[in-house]
Amino acid sequence: MTRPLPRLGLGTWQMGDDPARRAYEVAALRAGLDLGLSMIDTAEYYGHGRSEGVVADAIAGRRDEVFLVTKVMPRNATRRGAAAACERSLRHLRTDRVDLYLVHWREDVPLEETVAAMEGLREAGKCVSWGVSNFDVHDMEDTFAAPGGARCAANQVYYNLLHRGIERRLVPWCARRGVAVMAYTPVESGRLPVRPSLAAAAERHGVTPFAAAVAWTMRDPGVVTIVKSGRADRVREYAASLRVRFDEAELSALDRDYPAPTRDVPLETV
Ligand SMILES: NC(=O)c1ccc[n+]([C@@H]2O[C@H](COP(=O)([O-])OP(=O)(O)OC[C@H]3O[C@@H](n4cnc5c(N)ncnc54)[C@H](OP(=O)(O)O)[C@@H]3O)[C@@H](O)[C@H]2O)c1
Fold this sequence. Notes:
This protein has about 270 residues and is α/β, with parallel strands linked by helices. The chain is built from ten helices and eight strands.
């Protein structure tokens, strides 16, 4: 049965790349599970399955607590390619199903074939639901035009205080159709500038500025967020963002310091 997406999850990009960091990464993901951050996001692309291996270690014995997300490479998003890629990911993850299987980005495989492949995996129970990533409004329209495409459950996209273009058309489009928006890179890979409004809001809510920035991405109920840290202390910091609710004055101040674009911009990616 499809479960609602948890509001905040942990990313795993670059996990597994450095063997010396692996134990810390596993511990960070486990700390997240202990704090109720049950969504874990990975991809076959991340370290050619090495990130999925770290996730497998972290969720060992705890699979039912986890909302597990992985992604298929665009060139594998064909009927046969997706079936094989999904089996590989399940093997790396040491599980029999993922909760959400995403098309990592769009390339030239026809979307009708990709949607049919994802629907086939859903019907076979290999994924509970499926979605896309890095899809702009026109890509979503094409997805929904394909037979079965309206079952697309989520679109994972770049979103943070510095990159707000999706607020104009993509977020409302997804909201109208019940597609969850999953924000990635919410703290700009650790490089988000902390401007006065963010520092002030963080202090008022008793969280760090980066935790406040994560909370800001989740202020719209249609947006869930994936943040990454290979350190348990930072994971604890981010878990605190779930209790932050900004008031209108704080949101206006953040709008002044981190303005949204005033015209439509193409979807940005990292
Ligand atoms: N679908 C896609 O195309 C796509 C693209 C990008 C990302 N994603 C997913 O979204 C997840 C999150 O995005 P992200 O990893 O790009 O970026 P992010 O969550 O904005 O930032 C993560 C990076 O910032 C560092 N960091 C975190 N907190 C910090 C702090 N308080 N001070 C300094 N540095 C800090 C982390 O290092 P430490 O680990 O050392 O803490 C890590 O290198 C990814 O891991 C991945 O699962 C998906």
